[in-house]
Every structure is written in structure tokens, then in C-alpha cells.
Amino acid sequence: MNTSDIDKDAARQIREENARHTVLLNAGGSAAMLGQGTWHMGERRDSAAREAGALRLGIELGMTLIDTAEMYADGGAETVTGMAVAGLRERVFLVSKVYPHNAGRGKLAQSCEDSLRRLKTDWLDLYLLHWRGDIPLSETIEGMEALVAQGKIRRWGVSNFDTEDMRQLLRCDGGDRCAVNQVLYHLGSRGVEYDLLPWQKAHGIPIMAYCPVAQGGRLRRELLSHLAVAEIAGARGATATQILLAWCMRSGDVIAIPKAAQPAHVLENAQAGAIRLTAQELARLDAAFPPPGRKVPLDMR
Length: 301
Ligand code: NAP
Fold this sequence. Notes:
Helix content is 41%, strand content 11%. The protein is of the alpha/beta class and 301 residues long.
């Protein structure tokens, strides 16, 4: 399946709907609320063209933010992303991530340069510290700001930072320029709602939700087959996965980045952008999957 297999008017409608929904980033700019992940892409050479095709379909359907990382397939996912955005670069908001051990004075600029080369682009729209390591935050901020000044990246942010990490980040010089924090967030993992999400809201720093459809495995199967999810999906003529995505984006200020290498999944995800859950549906999902009543450590994959 590609865009030529989808009715042109239908594809345009989906694209226009998704284009209407953007999230304001801290320190300027905005990005599509519904994007695409790339973890596990680029692991096999014979799948690269198919994966790039899936990402291109997603771009055509308005999921114009693509999230990748130097870590994924040792740069292979960035290479696939580069294939996908060839000729479409201006329409895409590209996000990549640097390993913590490369986020210091000696290595950050080279890591960024390597990512740009694999992505076949001159700039990243957003560059994230993948998780917190041993390098002082102030040193990473300094390096990120130097990349901004050189035009290599438009803005920077962090990933897998819990509330105390964010507090420490904002106490550093320039830390208040952090555009987003990318964390695991889905209906079955709501820990961030206890204090991280409210803290970030208060500071105008949005969350980018990874694993928004709960990856694969038992937890995902439990979520999808839960009566509340299944009945809400059934009543709307939607799929359970679409309900998970709509739930993630319900507040209007969370970006979701589902990864899909299968074109049918890409189409299904793109169509979720139009779903607005009602207060009644949200209450039913809250009853089935209650928000946390206490602090829980940040969930990570
Ligand atoms: P995910 O997006 O929750 O789940 C991906 C899985 O769900 C894939 O197996 C995919 O299948 C399947 N899927 C997607 N849409 C579907 C649909 N409509 N129906 C049925 N199955 C569907 O998990 P994720 O890839 O771990 O997370 C998303 C992205 O977040 C990653 O790709 C990565 O870019 C980012 N991430 C960041 C971190 C971090 O530490 N910052 C950690 C994890 C992930 P197919 O591929 O076969 O279509």
C-alpha cells in the first residue's frame, strides 16, 4: 500500500486533518501532534526501502514529525529516514537523539555531523539527549546551544528525564531553552501524570510520548482486548490502536510518535488524528486504567 492505493481525496483529508493539530514547543516553534517513530527500522538492508516507503506514506498522510536516533540500528534508522525524506525535507520535522556518552564537549558536534550525513540533511529540527548520563547537563546544554548557533539544529531537548532531572536541567544556564522531554507514555503506563506532566505543563515544556501504542507483547494485548477500549473502538468504528493514540493526544499538548513499518498500520495511525474522545469515554478509560495516586519511577524501554 502507498498513497496511490488510497483514494486521493481521502489521503488529502487525512493530511489536512493532521496538519490542523500541532503542539507548541518550549522556546519557540511547533510540531505535528502525530508523528512517526523509527526504532527497529534499518536493522536489515533488505527491508530499508519498504520501511522508507512506510515513512513516506506517513508524511503524505500528515504525520510529518519523524523521530530517530544514532542508537537505532547503529545509525541504520537514520539512513532509512534519510531515504524517506529525500525530496520532502522542507515538509518534515526531523528529530534525532545523541547517546549520553556522546553528549559532551569532545563528541557532541561529531555525533550531530554523523547524524546529518546519514539523514542527508543540513539541519535537525530537534536534537535530544537520549537519556541522562554522566556528562554534566551544563556541558550538554553548551554544546547544544553551539549547534543551534551554527544552524546545525533548530532546537534541542531531552528524553527519559524524570521530574527531578528536569528541575536540575532548568537550574542550569540555558536549561530553560529545552523544547521537549520525550518519555514513555500510554494508557497502560500513566506514571508521568503524577508529577512530571503537571510540572512540564507549568513550565510550558510539552511531552513527546514514545511507545504510544505500547510496543508489542502482553501489555499491548491486554490494553487492546480490554472491554472498555474494545467497546469505545467498536462504537466509533475505530480500532483499539486508534483509541490508544487518540487517548495519548487527548490534551492537545502531547506529541505521539507511533512506529509502523506496515503501510496498513501507518494509514490506521494517521486516521487516529481525527478522533477526539468524549469526556464520557475518557472517564471510562480512567476507571479501567486509573491515573497514578503516588509517585512512580519513570517507565523506560
Ligand atoms: P510503539 O510505537 O508503541 O509500537 C510499535 C509497534 O506497534 C510495531 O510493532 C508496529 O508494527 C506496531 N503498530 C504500530 N501501529 C499499529 C497499528 N495501527 N496496528 C497494529 N500494530 C501497530 O513502540 P516504539 O516503536 O517502541 O515507540 C515509538 C517510537 O518512539 C520509537 O519507534 C522511537 O522512535 C521512539 N522511542 C524512544 C525511546 C527513548 O528512549 N527516547 C524509547 C522507545 C521508543 P509494524 O512496525 O509492524 O507496523
